[in-house]
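**Backbone geometry record:**
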Amino acid sequence: MNDEPSPPPEEQPARPAEVVESGPVPAGYPVLVEADRQEEYVRLLPLVKWLLLVPHYIVLFFLGIGAALVAFVAFFATLFTGRYPPGMWDFMVGVERWVLRVGAYLLLITDEYPPFSLREEPGDAVRLEAVYPEHVSRWRPLVAWLLIVPYMIVASLIAVVGHICAFLSFFTIIFTKRIPGDLFDVIRISFNWQIRASFYAYWLSTEYPPFTWDEDE
């Protein structure tokens, strides 16, 4: 019998730490407004929507004050750290989402009463999708409001056209209970332009919005 000790097993090379990769970044601009057109709208609801929204106007007044304070703090946080505090970013996006829902209800493209929530709710007819910027250049809070002026001018003109389409939609709903697809798309696109201008102005997004009519172009 061989009593010699067997040689120790060869040490296996250490496995490198597993690399966790983030999910794919959505294609296109990182801020997008989507909306579902209803097959049929309530005929007389456009007459009273502005009145039904009064509670939201009150809440938005106080949310606007909160957003101004958050933007003030985020200004210095971004200036010194190069990063928009995630909690503050979530709040600001929530306020933008709230404003969008109220605007979409007021301009008739949805009969779904806006929820009193900053978050996206299941089954929302109007949705705001946005991607959090991991890094924000420190100079951006100083000049983003100025750089966005050309885009904001165009967005304001498109907003006027959107309001005109909403006025025309008032009559199409009253008489046919429907909104023509072309009118619906213009109103939705006008919201897209306004939201993107606001996101860049408040450095919630760092990518300059494209001068394209719609996301599909």
